[in-house]
Specification:
By secondary structure, the chain is of the alpha+beta class. The chain is built from one helix and two strands. A hairpin with a 6-residue loop joins β1 (2-9) and β2 (16-24). The radius of gyration is 17 Å and the shape is elongated.
Length: 70
């Protein structure tokens, strides 16, 4: 499980504008050797981090877009 809490604040102010939690989970079968398992875990972790990164960028772009249209 990878969880990231994103908080957007106004510049130079403590006022919180938006908060969002991003969570990705993955379950997998055990591997034959510890090395295979370690490598697989690293690969899955990177995939989950990339997915959350994409979700954050999308969220921020949509947030920015919605604010510019107002």
């Amino acid at each position: 499980i990878i969880t990231i809490d994103l908080t957007i604040k106004e510049n130079k102010v403590v006022k919180i504008i938006e908060t969002k939690k991003f969570v990705e989970t993955f379950s997998y079968n055990n591997k034959d050797t510890k090395l295979e398992l370690d490598n697989y875990q690293k690969e899955i972790k990177q995939i989950l981090v990339n997915k959350i990164s994409e979700d954050i960028v999308l969220f921020l772009n949509l947030k920015w877009l919605s604010n510019t249209l107002i």
